[in-house]
Amino acid sequence: RDAQESRGLGDVYKRQAKTRRICYMEKKNIDWANIGFGYIKTDKRFVSNYKEGAWDDGVLTEDDKVVISECAGVLQYAQTCFEGLKAYTTEQGKIVTFRPDLNGERMENSCKKLMMPVFPKEKFVDAVLKTVEANAAYVPPYGSGATLYIRPYMFGSNPVIGVKPATEYQFRIFTTPVGPYFKGGAKPLTIRVSDVDRAAPHGTGDIKAGLNYAMSLFNIVDAHEHGYDENMYLDPATRTYVEETGGANFIFVTKDGKVVTPKSGSILPSITRRSLLTVAKDYFGLEVEERPVAKAELKDMAECGLCGTAAVISPVGKIVDHGTEFIYPKNPSVLGYTLLPEKYRSRRIQLYQYRDNKHRQCKYGKHNGSHNHIKYSFCPKPRAAFYQDVVIFPDLFCPHFIGKVCPLS
Ligand code: PLP
Ligand code: COI
């Protein structure tokens, strides 16, 4: 099905081919290895306006300022949604993006639920690639530990004072080079079970609405102040099932080696998770379960990790539930061992690793320089540090693109 869908993306391939040609251009002079997850202004952004029932063609502009009415729908009633994805430089020097079509699809769903006009998936992908291409000098070099974060977003722009949808909208995409989302690099995360809910039952938890993130701000600041990296949100109706964190999904591995991830109508369907589950099931032959995960099961899990575009794959070392600690020490590589065994080598799945540069030393041999990170994935006995920043992405340009992972050809 994915393969069929991807065939319709002919223009995307052409655009990607173009991107491919220009990607050898000189990169900006940025200390890639030491940037955090912050905003660095890049040269160009994409802007398209919706008026009188139609989107215009959109343009790339250098203007990073947004001018809207003081009464704009987004300012009064938070009518806004967004997406997040990344562009990478491959070892061969190509620039690739990770499943922009799925982000486009998810944004369509967000728009529908927020009574916003859909920005069609095909236009979305084209705009993403145009924006990346225009900022190619900011796509961090291969092995630098950084990536180019792409932020598409849309908001109601005309004055709205009665509670109703806006009639005019702006869709924009900016890019910014980013480093690791979690401070401390390879250190397994400590997460607390939250007393606050992120999303209501049958609410907006399953879409990428700005309001979901506004809801979580108090709680994330509070978690950090208390020494936790993130909050584990529970199902808001019964508070007995695991949902997700403020910006990533959970993946668990049971003691008998099953990969388990929460199923819920109020969590964001992670594109990273989707790919990981596919890799686990179709390439590693692991048993995969997407099902409600009771909080009571935390004590029985062997491994726990977070996954997401920003979060990549980050191991969770400890979950604290009001004084009760669940520690996952048995296998400190967390998802490393289970999801990335040596098996994948024979399958030739393309995996790229973007790691904290401070953790370059491999227990099983020293790798020097910044251009051989791929070697880490071939370490016979990988350690946690080497896998906490794994990113799996298909090369959209690959003719064998199967929509999940792209085997090297
Ligand atoms: N859950 C939430 C709440 C998120 O904000 C994100 C990030 O986009 C994710 C999960 C992970 O989704 P993805 O892998 O598509 O980035
Ligand atoms: C992403 O991973 O793209 C997100 O939007 C999550 C956010 C916490 C940065």
Observed structural traits:
8-stranded mixed sheet, binds 2-OXO-4-methylpentanoic acid, disordered C terminus, 8-stranded antiparallel sheet, disordered N terminus, single chain, 24% strand, 409 residues, alpha+beta, binds pyridoxal-5'-phosphate, 10 helices
The unreliable regions are 1-24, 331-337, 340-409
Using only C-alpha atoms, the radius of gyration works out to: 21 Å
> Tally the helices: what do you get?
10
Distance between the termini: 21 Å
Number of strand segments = 20
The major beta sheet can be summarized as:
8 strands, antiparallel
The percentage helix is: 10-25%
Shape: globular
What class would the helix/strand composition place it in? Answer: alpha+beta
SSE topology string: HHEEEHEEEHHEEEHEEEHEEEEHHEEEHE
Query: Strand-residue fraction?
Result: 15-25%
Distinct compounds present: pyridoxal-5'-phosphate, 2-OXO-4-methylpentanoic acid
What integer is the average pLDDT? 78
What's this, in brief?
The chain has ten helices and 20 strands.
Description:
By secondary structure, the protein is α+β, with helices and mostly antiparallel strands. 23% of the residues lie in helices and 24% in strands. The protein is built from ten helices and 20 strands. It has helices spanning 2-7, 10-22, 73-77, 100-113, 121-134, 210-225, 271-283, 335-339, 343-347, 384-387; strands spanning 45-51, 54-55, 59-61, 80-82, 85-89, 95-97, 147-156, 169-178, 189-193, 230-232, 249-254, 259-262, 288-291, 301-308, 312-321, 324-327, 351-353, 361-362, 365-366, 390-392. Strands 1, 2, 3, 4, 5, 6, 7 and 8 form an eight-stranded antiparallel β-sheet that branches. Strand 1 and strand 2 form a beta hairpin. The longest helix has 16 residues, at 210-225. The radius of gyration is 21 Å and the shape is globular. The protein starts with a helix and ends in a 17-residue tail after the last strand. The structure holds pyridoxal-5'-phosphate and 2-OXO-4-methylpentanoic acid. Pyridoxal-5'-phosphate binds at residues 84, 244, 247-249, 268, 270-273, 308-309.
